[in-house]
Amino acid sequence: MSRPLFQLDPRLRLCADFVRPGARMADIGTDHAHLPVWLEKQGRIRSAVAADVRTGPLAKAEENLKRYQTEHISVRLSDGLAKILPEEAEDIVIAGMGGELIAKILSGAPWVRQEERRLILQPMTCAPELRDYLRQNGFAVLREEAVESRGHVYSVMLVCWRPGQPRTGELYPYIGMLRPETAAARTYIQKQSAALRVRGNGLCAKDPVEARRLLRVADQLEHLIPKEDLR
Ligand SMILES: C[S@@+](CC[C@H](N)C(=O)[O-])C[C@H]1O[C@@H](n2cnc3c(N)ncnc32)[C@H](O)[C@@H]1O
């Protein structure tokens, strides 16, 4: 008998909610394969490839496929998208990695540049670098939400290739499409502002022009947050 299904933490749950119903999906950097197992067991996807660059996580993924008796998930050793076929991956989740690694994985697979494909990206670090990469390479962020999980706040982006309308604006790399409409988004924006302030203050002597720019962006971000919500 298969086990009762586990709950996803709010971060992975938001990634799951961005996957289109009935999609063939690939989870890159799957670790325990929690995301594809949960999606299959909820009847939300047609199939999944649970991929990881390391054999240790894949062994745990295999165990979970057996434990939860999945039928439409295959496990694959793959550096990024190298061993994934385009037809297996209408929706691609890359979650829980640094933003620069996510950008590198996307640049290694030119076939992700198709308007009908969806990318669900959740950087742990370097989100501004990832957003810069996306806007410079013809990717549009269709939707972005922040989520708080285990004392941290994360951003999840739904992305597709849509060249010709690059997002600009000084705030875009730092908060993307997030607006201060939820408590999690306000926390995210405030944390970005605080981080820029620290960087700006640290650069005052070495690069005063860049320091002024960072402090100006930090001010603009802080002004987005209603005073009563400032922590
Ligand atoms: C912190 S875990 C994230 C697991 C899950 N995606 C999540 O968000 O909770 C990162 C996983 O990405 C894998 N990984 C790192 N670099 C990778 C690459 N280039 N290609 C595929 N997987 C990679 C690691 O082996 C690890 O299992």
From TrEMBL:
Which GO molecular function annotation, any one, does this entry have?
tRNA (adenine(22)-N1)-methyltransferase activity
**SUPFAM superfamilies attached to this UniProt entry:** S-adenosyl-L-methionine-dependent methyltransferases
GO process annotations (BP): methylation
What InterPro entries has UniProt attached to this entry?
A: SAM-dependent_MTases_sf, TrmK
The alphabetical list of record keywords is:
Methyltransferase, Transferase
- Bilayer-crossing regions: none
Classify the source by domain of life. Answer: Bacteria
One Pfam match: Methyltransf_18
Descriptive protein name: SAM-dependent methyltransferase
User: What species does this protein belong to?
Assistant: Faecalispora sporosphaeroides
**Taxonomic lineage:** Bacteria, Bacillati, Bacillota, Clostridia, Eubacteriales
